[in-house]
Amino acid sequence: MAVSVLHRLTRVHKQFVFKGCCSLWFNRCQSSDTTIGNVSSSSEEEENSSDQEENIKNRILKASLPFVHKYGWTKNAISEGAVTVGYPGTAHGLFPRGGAELVQYFYVTCNQELAGTLKKETEATAADPSKCKQPKEFIQDAVEQRLRMIIPYIDKWPQALGIMSLPPNVPPALANLLTLVDDICYYAGDRSVDFSWYSRRVTLAGIYKMTELYMIQDKSADFQETWSFLSRRIEDVSQLHGYLHQSEEASQIAKEAVTAAFITARNILGLNLGNR
């Protein structure tokens, strides 16, 4: 119920900011036919308006990414992006959290791109078993693919990490991380229902973040030292996995906590497990 209330409050806030800041140009995108007094029609119009707003925001954020190289993860980058797709620079008012929303957009789109790639890979494997990878190799390759998406913005990535470490931005940042590792484990073939389901995901989340931090300091060609670091961390997984099983009571407590964390992460991002 708390998540549902949060979604409703967030939706109302977004609509208020959108209408207050960009009513002049947004009205051109709405239909001139308005039905008043019909509850069903009003609900549909509200939903359509919200969808239009979200589409416009995504267009602006996508167009803003090339300007990150010059302006960083900031409102200035968003303003420049808005202009390139035909909206006024003041459209950055659509994004009250500023650069955090640009970082969030990048996180989500990269995760979605990776999930799509992994899904195609598993489907190809099902059709031709000779292409099947060992789970460890599959996971390592998936993490590397995701980290390579950061490379075009590597010089500005410390700023992105700093922005997402601020208290208001921690929930969506954590949600993105947990969703990422969940997708990787899922497509790697992990369908277990015991504690190992949770421990593998928590362990992989730690490996991903450690490797990400290593990567932003890596000066080797094509980040070869980073991929070696990742390989060593993957090798360490079995040892950590054994440690997590040492205490049955601690395992149960951790299991309950991690279960709640993954459910909350999916809810924050509005994702449905059935879509995979």
Describe this structure in words.
By secondary structure, the chain is mainly alpha-helical. The protein has twelve helices and no strands.
Name its key features.
single chain; 276 residues; 12 helices
In short:
This protein is mostly helical.
List low-pLDDT spans: 1-36, 242-251
Overall SS class: mainly alpha
| Total DSSP helices | 12
Q: Over the alpha carbons, how many angstroms does the gyration radius reach?
A: 21 Å
What is the overall pLDDT average?
A: 78
**SS strand fraction:** under 5%
Q: Specify the helix fraction band.
A: over 70%
Distance between the termini: 25 Å
Draw up the topology in text.
Blueprint: H1 2-26, H2 39-64, H3 68-71, H4 75-84, H5 99-127, H6 135-148, H7 157-164, H8 170-187, H9 195-215, H10 224-235, H11 237-244, H12 248-269
Helix pairs in contact: 2-4, 2-5, 5-8, 6-10, 8-9, 8-12, 9-10, 9-11, 9-12
